[in-house]
Q: What sequence folds into this?
């Protein structure tokens, strides 16, 4: 089965409806200026590790709040809920039709629990976001038009299960359930060897993320981050590789020779560089919009990211 990457007009209308519903249910939070809750998740009270939280969770959320602040952190979490709703809408639409997709997406963006989780720094939001990506990658694997592409998507599925496990260890169950669920289908169609290859790709992705996560947890000087598997061998990553290397070199040099005070003092300048980049990408978009209104013709395409 060939998978269509770009959604059609009806799907875009549905996604706009999901966005409107997502915003409407969250308007009271803006109107009444309700402050996000910070220290409410299970990892603040429970011994670690357990089935609900991993040793990475406190550091992850501590860094998250420190980097973005409580309000911006809550906004990002709400956006993650919207993105998860769109991903699951697309999976349900392709699997069972437009009505099923709308019901699924609206359930995610309107669910009161997800509103509460997103306005609190709880691991449910990030966990559900990675699970949504996990299911999206699984659907792409199951509908891939070639064995090689299916293996790649199964590897990504395993990677996302590993990332979700870093938030909540219960995601480990996915890696056990998926091969058992797929086995009857491949046995029935006489594709046992294909089942073994795809299961191996799934387990390899999960195992690599777990090994790299354990390395970062146990060894202070472990050099590699498990997020590398989310962007590994992608075209945008290849274009940005030198920029990432340069950014790391600047950060490491400042931290090594300037210390924490110089590091903190230079943060506003780095934020300014990011803001300048965003403004630089917004100007061509604005010019193109004005050009379209004035002439009725499509402006020249402008890409912020390669791909």
A:
């Amino acid at each position: 089965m060939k998978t269509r990457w770009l959604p059609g007009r009806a799907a875009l209308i549905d996604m706009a409806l999901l966005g409107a519903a997502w915003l409407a249910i969250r308007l009271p939070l803006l109107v009444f200026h309700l402050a996000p809750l910070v220290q409410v998740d299970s990892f603040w009270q429970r011994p670690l590790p357990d089935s609900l939280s991993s040793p990475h969770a406190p550091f992850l959320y501590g860094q998250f709040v420190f980097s973005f602040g409580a309000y911006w952190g809550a906004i990002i979490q709400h956006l993650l809920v919207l993105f998860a709703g769109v991903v699951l809408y697309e999976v349900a639409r392709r699997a069972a039709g437009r009505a099923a997709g709308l019901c699924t997406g609206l359930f995610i963006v309107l669910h009161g629990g997800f509103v509460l989780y997103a306005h609190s720094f709880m691991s449910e939001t990030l966990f559900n976001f990675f699970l949504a990506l996990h299911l999206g990658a699984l659907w792409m694997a199951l509908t891939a038009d070639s064995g090689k592409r299916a293996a790649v998507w199964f590897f990504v599925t395993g990677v996302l299960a590993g990332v979700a496990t870093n938030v909540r260890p219960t995601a480990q169950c996915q890696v056990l359930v998926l091969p058992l669920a797929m086995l009857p289908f491949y046995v029935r169609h006489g594709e046992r060897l294909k089942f073994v290859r795809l299961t191996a790709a799934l387990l390899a992705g999960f195992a690599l993320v777990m090994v790299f996560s354990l390395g970062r947890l146990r060894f202070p000087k472990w050099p590699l981050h498990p997020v590398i598997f989310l962007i590994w061998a992608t075209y945008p990553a290849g274009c940005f590789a030198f920029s990432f290397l340069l950014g790391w070199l600047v950060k490491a040099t400042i931290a090594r020779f300037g210390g924490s005070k110089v590091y903190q003092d230079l943060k506003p300048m780095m934020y300014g560089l990011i803001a300048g980049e965003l403004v630089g990408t917004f100007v061509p978009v604005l010019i193109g919009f004005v050009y379209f209104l004035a002439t009725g013709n499509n402006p020249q395409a402008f890409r912020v990211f390669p791909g």
